[in-house]
Predict the 3D structure of the following.
Amino acid sequence: MGIGDAIKDFMSGAAASASAAKDKLTDGATILRLETEIKQLQGDIDKWCGEIGRQYAAKYAGDYGGEFGSYLEQISRNKDKIKSLEDQISAIKGTRKCSKCGAEIDIDAAFCVKCGTKQAPAAARGRTH
Ligand SMILES: [Zn+2]
């Protein structure tokens, strides 16, 4: 073939490659969109499963004889541990929690700064100094 045909062949080959590349790009975008949608749907499932678990744990707290008793027991242990760690932080910071709303207030505060509830004297709550 002549040089003209060779150029023509090359150009049509390049056009086909560009078209294939464009198709691949479109496919890639479509796959990404579909995968994003799958992730969102899976995220919803995970969220709802977590919510079912939280509601079950709240409903059957302390009932360690049932099907998920060992999990409920571990949840209870972790909650106790968290409470203990929070108490350690409060002791270091010199704060305590409001008896009504749970807001962090100064250990000597007579009233909650958030809800205004009168607080028991700090000494009555085991204050050591
Ligand atoms: Zn309060």
About this structure: The two ends are 101 Å apart (CA to CA). Residues 3-59 form the longest helix (57 residues). Residues 76-129 form one domain.
